[in-house]
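Chapter review: from sequence to fold.
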Amino acid sequence: MTRVVALVLALFVVSLLGALGSDPAEKVYASQNGSVSQSPHAQAGDSVAGKEFWNWYECAHCHGLYGQGGYGPDLAGLGLTFDQFKRQVRQPWGAMLRWSEHQLSDKELTNIYAFLTSLPRVATPGVAPPGVPLDISNRRVGENNIGRPSRVTAPPNAPLGQRYAINLAGCAQCHGPEQRSSREELGSRTHPRYNGRDLAQLVKDATGFTGSEEAVNWEYFKACVYEHEKLIPDARMGSYSRARLPEPVVREIYNFALALGTRARLVNTLAPGVRSGDTVSYTLTVTNLGKTYGV
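The token string follows.
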């Protein structure tokens, strides 16, 4: 009888190790206790697809690669119901942005929920489980490689707008502590997602507003904050609540970004090499996508 029990245990261990493969995160998770029981929604979701979407959609920038928390709260294994989880995404409280079903479908939410509920609770919120990589090579990160760590903090002597952007609104988690990508949008005034339109035309089409360059820049920035889906429907960014992120705060963030100066988007293309004898020549073409107002 003892040999039978030992054999069964040995087979179980071998099958468990085979299932874990070489993923160090999964090995650590398997050694921890405290993961929540799987709800019907979690069972219906695809946790592998949820993990991929979690990283691609940049949820990890605020909540951590393993749901351990950072700027946003820890979500790994907390045992929220799917309805609670969905409500927070569609009608969030606190400083979190909201995402519509067009931007983030219920099916995708179900997969993310399955991924989060498959994880164990973290021992210390904001700290990744020991033994796991702090990042993964194929994760899409922000303009300033933000996401490592999962919380960016502003120094006490930082300008007020920067402190608002980093500590209050969490803008730096994706756009960087110096609002790099936001300043690039204002400086370039064009983007492939604008479908050939100048920033001024984009604002006019989305909001009906026309005016001076400074006024259009402000309307664009404000629309990005409060009506991002309306401005750029296929963008990943959600929209803030005016009640929780008042316009005077957004204006301070905008003023901080402008004070640093706008940036033009540069695109580079490297042509295939041309061999001549023992040497190979390459042609690098750099295009400045910066536009003047109204062009």
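Two observations follow directly from the output. The beta strands are 266-270, 274-276, 279-281, 284-288. Residues 1-37, 138-147 have pLDDT under 50 and may be disordered.
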